[in-house]
Design brief:
By secondary structure, the chain is an alpha/beta fold. It is built from ten helices and eight strands.
């Protein structure tokens, strides 16, 4: 297992669709592409969507396949997992996706104001003992606010009752605008437009794992 990880770390270091900034870059505010993702990396003016805590990147890759006219950035700190999605994107010649290896705590260091259109949180760690570390806590939402366009949409897809209930509470407490909320996504999915249904039927490794154990999938989208 250790050899496999070392191999993957070595491989992503060579991949043209993986960016691994150093702490020095972050601390000195010299991260590549900040404020210029479209101009300097994607070389277009398309919208930018982030998947935060992307794991193997299944969601971001799935979205990139469906929407060649949009740009996607998949973010995670675990290069071992990221390798899977990055390799797949290269094999499929997907030019509208890049993988960014960093902690989500630093996400606002990588983008300028109004640079991001949407954020996806797919099966994030519910942080049972650390509510402030949940990716829909005010601590993180305030970071997203610095980089998102007005009325930018945040999507949460999860199996966790704790995370979903906490997110619902945050939406009410801070007066975010809920656009859709379901404690049983696949029972309520037909309320959404067909194109959105297609997106929500993309399943990550973790969703497959959790549903095989009987978990019910929750979903919401809201603006901040």
């Amino acid at each position: 297992m250790a050899e496999k990880k070392l191999f993957r770390f070595a491989e992503i270091a060579k991949m043209e669709n993986v960016l691994q900034p150093t702490m020095e870059m972050i601390e000195e505010d010299k991260v590549p592409y900040k404020g210029n993702w479209n101009k300097k990396y994607f070389k277009n003016d398309n919208s930018i969507t982030l998947e935060l805590g992307c794991g193997k990147g299944e969601y971001a890759v799935g979205l990139a396949r469906k929407y060649p006219d949009r740009n996607f950035i998949a973010v995670d700190i675990k290069g071992n997992r990221m390798y899977v999605g990055a390799k797949q994107a290269l094999e499929e010649n997907l030019k509208n996706i890049i993988f960014l290896r960093t902690k989500i705590d630093f996400i606002d260091f990588f983008f300028e104001k109004n640079e991001v259109d949407e954020i996806w949180l797919t099966f994030s760690d519910p942080q049972r003992k650390k509510p402030r570390k949940r990716l829909t806590s005010k601590l993180f939402i305030d970071r997203y606010r610095k980089i998102m366009k007005p009325n930018g949409i945040i999507h949460l897809k999860t199996d966790s009752d704790i995370l979903f209930e906490s997110t619902e509470e945050q939406i009410k407490l801070h007066n975010y605008t809920p656009l859709f909320l379901s404690w049983n996504l696949y029972a309520d999915i037909y309320q959404l437009p067909e194109k959105e249904q297609e997106i929500l039927r993309i399943k990550t490794y973790y969703e497959e794992l959790f549903t095989s154990k009987g978990a019910q999938i929750k979903y919401c989208k809201f603006t901040i």
